[in-house]
Write a structure and sequence with these properties.
- The protein is about 25% helix and about 30% strand.
- It is an alpha/beta fold and about 200 residues long.
- It is globular and about 40 Å long.
- It is built from 6 helices and 12 strands.
- The strands form 3 sheets. It has a 7-stranded mixed beta sheet. Strands 5-6-9 form a 3-stranded mixed beta sheet.
- The protein has a single domain, classed as 3-Layer(aba) Sandwich (Rossmann fold).
- The structure holds glutamine (GLN).
- Glutamine binds next to helix 4.
Length: about 200
């Protein structure tokens, strides 16, 4: 059975854990680097990316998460989590893991609409997805290996790149578990390291 962890240093981790518990999934709150060994996929929840970064100084999280990704394990980042994974955080200059080939801008929807909801067309599905945006960031550029699964006004808001799923909204705050289910598939299906898979593709 797939084991999912939710990074529980700060932010909206409980809501993610509740979604997985309701789906009958084996889910744990992750507070220590060593716990990454026991899971197949990790959720990086929304919250405040600057606070998260501070809390991540206590242990070698950057190295551990890069290794986790290189081992072919799956990452599901929402909102502040997506900011942490990006290649570049525009304007703020804050540190980021650089695992997702995308540039991102924090709090990019302006103060007058700090929070809002919208219906999104979801790649491959008929039913629209209700999405909650809270002081949301915006992907301003995405690399060639980044597949866009949902857009808002033509801009990517849900993306997939190898074993990374990232949303600028909060799928854990609506009753629709489709995005969490997609992540389960990702965490279950990738058993080989990214580098190996890339070699496999190149070799045909
Ligand atoms: N504005 C937050 C940040 O920059 C992200 C908001 C969220 O996660 N809901 O970290």
């Amino acid at each position: 059975m797939v084991r999912i962890g939710v990074l529980a240093l700060q932010g909206g981790f409980e809501a993610h854990a509740r979604v997985y518990a309701a789906l009958g999934v084996n889910v744990v709150e992750v507070r220590r680097v060593v716990q990454l060994r026991d899971i197949d996929g990790l959720v990086l929840p929304g919250g405040e990316s600057t606070t998260l970064l501070k809390l991540m100084e206590d242990e070698p999280w950057f190295e551990a998460l890069s290794d986790f990704h290189a081992d072919g394990k799956a990452l599901f980042a929402t909102c502040a989590g997506a900011i942490l994974l990006a290649r570049e955080v525009l304007d703020s200059g804050q540190r980021a893991l650089g695992l997702l080939d995308a540039s991102i801008r924090r709090n990019a929807f302006g103060r007058q609409i700090d929070s809002f909801e919208a219906d999104l067309a979801l790649d491959g599905e008929r039913e629209p997805l209700r999405a909650v945006f809270i002081r949301a960031p915006r992907f301003t550029a995405t690399g060639p290996d980044v597949e866009v699964l949902a857009r808002l006004d033509d801009e990517p808001v849900l993306v997939l790149q190898d074993n990374i799923l990232a949303a600028t909204f909060h799928p854990e705050l609506t009753a629709d578990p489709r995005i969490h289910c997609r992540f389960l598939d990702l965490a279950a299906g990738l058993e080989r390291p990214v580098a190996e898979r890339a070699t496999g593709v190149a070799a045909g």
